[in-house]
Amino acid sequence: MQIRYNLPAASTTTFNMSGRGKGGKAKGKSKTRSSRAGLQFPVGRIHRLLRKGNYAERVGAGAPVYLAAVMEYLAAEVLELAGNAARDNKKTRIIPRHPAAGHPK
Question: What ranges does the record list as Basic residues composition bias (predicted)?
Fold first, then answer.
């Protein structure tokens, strides 16, 4: 538990009342697990869905990060092939036919 006092000298002081340590670091801006892993796909959401989906009794901390990375890689591959197929057809927008047309022969 932290107690915050506004002192008159325009300074704010925070006292840590947990009884452990010497105060510790102040809370900074929160960082998402996706940004920590350098991913665009939502690690937190994937973790929640893995827990809710009755896939296993317990879900490790690294499992959703790995799954998000695999899903992001697959999405990037499909989008790259679809983009190449769209460019070959002189289109600037990907349509549902483009991913099927973009498969390597």
Answer: 22-34
Nearest of 75, 80, 83 to residue 42 by alpha carbon? 75
How far, CA to CA in Å, does 3 sit from each of 22, 42, 56, 77, 79? 15, 34, 41, 51, 51
Ramachandran angles phi, psi of 92, nearest 5°: -100, -5
Q: What is the pLDDT of residues 22-47, one digit of tens each?
A: 766 778 899 999 999 999 999 999 99
How far is the C-alpha of 90 from the C-alpha of 84, rounded, in Å?
Answer: 10
Give the separation between CA 43 and CA 54, rounded to whole angstroms.
Answer: 18
CA pair distance 53, 79, nearest whole angstrom: 27
Strand 11-16, strand 2-7: pairing: antiparallel
DSSP 55: S
Q: Which of 90, 3, 93, 88 is nearest to 101 (CA)?
A: 88
Amino acid at 60: G
- This prediction has a pTM of 0.69
